[in-house]
């Protein structure tokens, strides 16, 4: 199967950079499109009672600026490889947002970085990559 539409979850970490590099390799082989996604996690409801609306707005602006910086960095990596890509900033649970976006663009593959959580910690917390592997409608490549 040729992967023509590839969605990459990107957060600026080394794991996500490795995932992006692997997606570039695959896209070159298949003449595929790369869609880079960054996700802003909203403030937890329990915390909202203790902070002002202005602080929430400031947090959201800072997070959006940070994601924009990360995604521009990712775009530079793709452009240096000679390929083109698109990017989008989403808000919500990272795994859910990545999967929903992949469905919307009719992606063939989702590429995410591996998160280094140990066994017991992973059972308690889970991770974006494991959630995407479990529930995605697309094939998923987890890159270490």
Structural summary, described in words:
It is a single chain. The protein has 144 residues and is α/β, with parallel strands linked by helices. The protein is built from 6 helices and 5 strands, in the order E-H-E-H-H-E-H-E-H-H-E. The protein has helices at 14-30, 45-48, 53-80, 94-104, 119-125, 128-135; strands at residues 5-9, 33-40, 85-91, 109-113, 139-143. The chain has a 5-stranded parallel beta sheet, with helices on both faces. Helix 4 (94-104) crosses helix 6.
Topology:
Elements lengths: L4 E5 L4 H17 L2 E8 L4 H4 L4 H28 L4 E7 L2 H11 L4 E5 L5 H7 L2 H8 L3 E5 L1
Parallel strand pairs: 1-2, 1-4, 2-3, 4-5
Helix pairs in contact: 4-6
**Residues in helices, as a percent range:** 40-55%
Radius of gyration: 16 Å
Structural class estimated from helices and strands: alpha/beta
Order of SSEs, N→C? EHEHHEHEHHE
Main β-sheet, in a few words? 5 strands, parallel
Low-confidence stretches: 116-125
Cα end-to-end separation: 22 Å
Strand order, biggest sheet? 3-2-1-4-5
- The multimeric state of the shown protein is single chain
Continuous helix count: 6
Round the mean pLDDT to the nearest integer and report it: 89
Say how many strands there are: 5
Gross morphology is globular
Share in β-strands:
15-25%
